[in-house]
Design goal:
Elements lengths: L1 H12 L8 E5 L8 E4 L5 E4 L5 H10 L4 E6 L5 H13 L1 E6 L3 E3 L4 H11 L4 E3 L6 E5 L2 E7 L5 E3 L2 H5 L4 E6 L2 E5 L5 H11 L7 E3 L11 H7 L3 E4 L12 H9 L3 E4 L5 E5 L9 E2 L24 H11 L2 E2 L1
Parallel strand pairs: 3-4, 4-5, 5-7, 6-10, 12-13, 13-14, 14-15
Antiparallel strand pairs: 1-2, 1-16, 2-3, 8-9, 9-11, 10-18, 11-12, 16-17
Helix pairs in contact: 2-3, 3-4
Length: about 325
């Protein structure tokens, strides 16, 4: 009888309180990107895998992870997909989110896609701007940029600008994850999504490159915290001084993976509990409903898709 009572209590109360928070881990993978998200419903998502297999594998094993519900490759550059090769070899993956951008100067992205196709029970999904991903009924996950039509390029800019950009909204706070999208895409998103870009937390685009995170974009997003995924003494000089100056001028608190993995926790709805980044930041929770995205906010039609291809400088297949 006690066992039945416990089961009924679980069904009535739903996800245990310990799981009812949303935690985003910006993993220290060196010069690359990898974000591991623990959702309130107990599911998880991995966005990119960094430039090597060891860092993300060790992080996930330390977390006790065996299955990843949602894996996202924002775009096919090696500092984002190499670690995912190891993920598909060592962990069960249930969904793989990808663009249809082919990096003609690389083979590893195609190897990853073959692994995804061969993964038992794994579904490959090509999200489009405006899509809402069904990861957790209490978390609004919006796709703000992607390349859902076949494209190819070898130059960095068009590939970066195909990045899958996601915005996660939970308990009055939003996290905007920019991949490596550059200022052209930022401008396009500002025109299309307008105030729908407003977010408390910003994962800065392209490791803090000067070609991303414009002053106008920061003004539109109105973030209070910036997280930069970057490697020590990297050959690109990331994060660039120009970007850091813009972040400081906009009043953002800046955290980087140079100090190790950065962890952001948004608590379950409860008045008086505040989000924290590594226990160092105290920001008031603003209890407002998630912005509604109307169809006119993202009027993507074939003409728009062609215009975006031209913007990115990529060729349609």
């Amino acid at each position: 009888m006690k066992k039945l009572t416990a089961l009924l209590a679980f069904l009535l109360l739903g996800v245990p309180a310990a799981r009812a928070q949303l935690t985003a881990n910006f993993v220290d993978v060196g010069q690359g990107d990898s974000i591991y998200i623990e959702l309130p419903n107990g599911h998880n998502a991995l966005i990119d895998g960094g430039p090597n297999g060891d860092s993300i594998r060790n992080f996930l094993k330390a977390k006790g992870v065996t299955t990843i519900d949602h894996v996202v490759l924002t775009h096919p550059h090696s500092d984002h997909y190499i670690g995912l090769l190891e993920v598909f070899k060592k962990f069960q993956v249930n969904e793989f989110y990808d663009t249809k951008m082919d990096n003609t100067d690389a083979q590893g992205d195609n190897t990853l896609r073959r692994l995804a196709q061969a993964e038992p029970g794994c579904k490959t999904i090509y999200p489009e701007p405006g899509d809402q991903l069904n990861w957790d009924r209490n978390v609004t996950v919006k796709v703000l940029n992607s390349c859902a039509s076949p494209m190819s390029a070898k130059d960095n800019t068009p590939i970066n600008n195909c990045s899958i950009v996601l915005r996660l909204y939970y308990n009055g706070s939003a996290i905007l994850l920019m991949g490596d999208a550059e200022s052209e895409v930022e401008n396009a998103m500002m025109r299309i999504f307008k105030s729908g870009l407003n977010s408390t937390y910003l994962k800065v685009g392209h490791h803090g490159s000067r070609y991303s995170t414009s002053a106008k974009f920061l003004e539109r997003v109105q973030a209070r915290v910036a997280i930069i995924s970057v490697g020590k003494d990297n050959k690109f000089g990331h994060p660039h001084k120009e970007t850091m100056d813009r972040l400081v001028a906009a009043g953002l608190q800046v955290f980087t993976t140079l100090d190790g993995t950065q962890t952001l926790t948004i608590p379950a709805p409860k008045k008086g509990v505040e989000p924290v980044v590594n226990g160092e930041i105290e920001l008031p929770v603003v209890y407002t409903p998630a912005p509604e995205f109307r169809m006119q906010d993202y009027p993507y039609d074939p003409a728009d898709a062609a215009a975006m291809r031209q913007l990115r400088g990529a060729s349609a297949e």
